[in-house]
Amino acid sequence: MTRRERTLALCVAGALGAFGLYKAGRLVLWAPLEAQRAGLDREQARAVRLQNRLREFERAEDDWQALTRRTLSTDPTDAQRRFREDIQELLEVHGLRNPKVTPGNFAKRKNEFVDVPLTITASGTLQEIVGFLTDFYRRDYLARLDKVTLAADQSVVGNINNPRRRPGGTRRGRTGGADAAAAAPAAESLPPEPLYGPEGPLLRVNITAVTLVLPVIKGVPHPVMEKIGPTADAGQLSYELAAYNQIVDHNLFKPWEAPRPVVTPPPAPPDVAVGPQPTPPPPPPPPANPRPNADKYKLVATTSLRGQRMACVLDETVLERVEVKRFRLDEPVDDGTLVLVHPSGIVVRAVEGGHPTDFFYRLGTTFAERQHLDPVEHADVYEALEAELPSTSAAAVVPPAGTH
């Protein structure tokens, strides 16, 4: 072997030895480092996935708690009690008559949700029933209506369909002969018995209402609605409030009445030429009306809630948002102060002609139809006011001359 071949062989052997040392060092030192780096990347990716899942769980927990805050209790019996008390309060506020709220049997679903039903029966006009239903749907707790049925009393329907029994007609007896002839003038002189008011006949409503009780999840807080607040705004409804008012305006239960004939006024006499006339003085400006919206407020109910007597007034000043307001004793009402709540109406004390005056607002009438409280005509109301305020009647609180 020549010297050149020997040198080349040494170089090849040195290169192979260096390559072998590199491979051995990579296996011994570099491979574990790369394995640790790959494991760190995997753990970081896993941590990102877990953080994303944790955020999803937090959002799901917040959404779940937002639902539980709209429930009345975790116990179906307690939820049914609170649900029943709120329904009874709504029935009283809207003046529905003969209300009856009957609890039903609980129904547990496969997803652990519990249906808590109530059966509601009452009587009232269509306007009162629609007001109750709209306010029910504006409540913020989880509830629904499974059934609503409306029906008029069949005897009322029969009387309405009979022209002789409609308002304006006279109800005659079944006696005959001389007795009938003698009773006819007296019967014709008596006023007819009203079968229905301007809002139509009384309707009987039957409602099945259900609220939900959500299951308690282990390890997740379960807050519930602590206090049932006032009715929410109209945004809870599926349609604008004016759309529900059209149900009352087009009352299907109200009997049809023939339109009044149009009376054509006689033609005006021809103008006659006359000389110049002096210009009459302008009329004085009309006096300011201190109660411009008195006909937009209507007393719909008087009730006692939790020991406090109150009056429920229908406010129709804004057609897009008709609401029922509640007033307690000694609160300002109309142009005075509420001093008495009576089953037949309320008494408001106002200043008229510089002196305190008591006015009687009869149940079912507007504020514009109020009357002066008369000891004879309103004897029971006057006696109740004297018993309630024996030393502060309108006549006793007139200030002497010179006082302020």
Give the structure's gist in a few sentences.
The protein has helices spanning 3-68, 76-93, 126-137, 154-161, 177-189, 241-249, 379-388, and strands spanning 97-103, 107-108, 114-124, 143-152, 203-213, 297-305, 308-315, 323-328, 332-333, 336-342, 345-352, 355-362, 371-372.
How would you characterize the overall build of this protein?
With 404 residues, the chain is α+β, with helices and mostly antiparallel strands. It is 34% helix and 23% strand. It contains seven helices and 13 strands. The longest helix has 66 residues, at 3-68. A hairpin with a 2-residue loop joins strand 9 (332-333) and strand 10 (336-342). The strands form three sheets. Strands 1, 2, 3, 4 and 5 form a five-stranded antiparallel beta sheet that branches. Strands 9-10-11-12-13 form a five-stranded antiparallel beta sheet. It has a three-stranded antiparallel beta sheet with strand order 6-7-8, with helices on one face. Among the domains are: 14-64; 76-168 and 198-219 and 235-249, Alpha-Beta Plaits (2-Layer Sandwich), CATH 3.30.70.60; 294-388, SH3 type barrels (Roll), CATH 2.30.30.
